[in-house]
Amino acid sequence: MKQRFNNLFRQPPLGFINPEMTWTEVVKFLILTNVTVFAAQEILGMYPFFIENFSLIPREFFHGRVWTLFTYMFLHGGFSHILFNMLALWMFGSMLERVWGSKEFLKYYLLTGLGGGLCYALFNMDSFVPTVGASGAIYGLLLAYAVLFPDNVIYIWFVIPVKAKYFAMIFGVIEFLASFNPGSGVAHLAHLGGMVMGYAYLKWGKLRYSAPGRRMREWKKKLEDSAREREEQTIEDVRREVDELLDKINKVGMDGLTKDEQKRLEKASQYLRDKGIKH
Questions:
Q1: Are residues 133 and 85 in the same domain?
Q2: What share of the chain is helix, strand, coil (3-state, %, to 5)?
Q3: Domain range spanning residue 26?
Q4: CATH number assigned to the domain comprising residue 194
Q5: Which of 63, 93, 97, 142 could form a disulfide with 24 if both were Cys (CB 3.0 to 4.6 A apart)?
């Protein structure tokens, strides 16, 4: 009985996590794919082979290595590089996939990644410097998240709250200004290209706002219904627990309750009072 009572006041798993950010199928697949490739790079020592054959090198891309426009986005230059990209993919991608559906989300992700790579290549046509990473697609996701959910709050460094629309503006300006420094070692033009491709696809592509809006409402309704069912079940269980303890009081008196039972009765009674329920 004690264990069952304690379980009543435990938050469900989603209570500790923003439901918008729980794993979705394509996001999970993309993260696992990127992590697997990164592990092969670092653990198996395949980084030189991958860079030579699958990174985006503008000069070689325009001389026939067209597949690198796709493969470059699954390679990463270091642990911090993949860590922040995958964290952003989880944060923004999970919500977008849930709203758009897996097929549309994957299409958008790949298009913005391709757009970012193409932008970098076009502005560096004679360069032999390779670029890698999913950042073009990640910046595309950030742009889409800001357009669809402009007032959602994002925490910079997990501390500073900023609305999504301002967050995207800030990082867009940073990337634009940084693009004038070609020696930074970061493909800022790929980031900007991902955002530009994302905006173009949202505005003129087949991805419309009506479907996201409808799916968003359906998803929120499911969450609300689920939360209401959980609360109703919790209230029912708490009332049952209170009734059992009151029955014991009727039989043996208040002194017949242990200290633990008295605390449980007090806690349960307070919970019901807070919910405006008489017992």
A1: yes
A2: 75, 5, 25
A3: 13-207
A4: 1.20.1540.10
A5: 97
Q: Which residues of the chain have pLDDT under 70?
A: 1-22, 180-186, 206-223, 278-279
φ, ψ of residue 155 in degrees (nearest 5): -100, 110
> What's the pLDDT tens digit per position in 130-144?
999 999 999 999 999
Q: What is the pLDDT of residues 59-72, one digit of tens each?
A: 999 999 999 999 99
Give the CA-trace dihedral at 59, 60, 65, 71, to 10 degrees: -80
Tell me how many domains the chain contains: 2
Which of 154, 175, 207 is where one domain is finished?
A: 207
Cβ atoms 47, 74 nearer than 8 A: no
State which of 167, 190, 207 marks the end of a domain. 207
User: At how many degrees (to 10) do helices 135-148 and 188-204 cross?
Assistant: 40
Question: In angstroms, rounded to a whole number, what is the distance separating the alpha carbons of residues 92 and 21?
Answer: 7
Q: Kindly state whether residues 219 and 117 are assigned to the same domain.
A: no
φ, ψ of residue 180 in degrees (nearest 5): -80, 0
* Whether residue 45 is found in the same domain as residue 85: yes
Contact 264, 2 (CB under 8 A): yes
3-class secondary structure, 210: helix
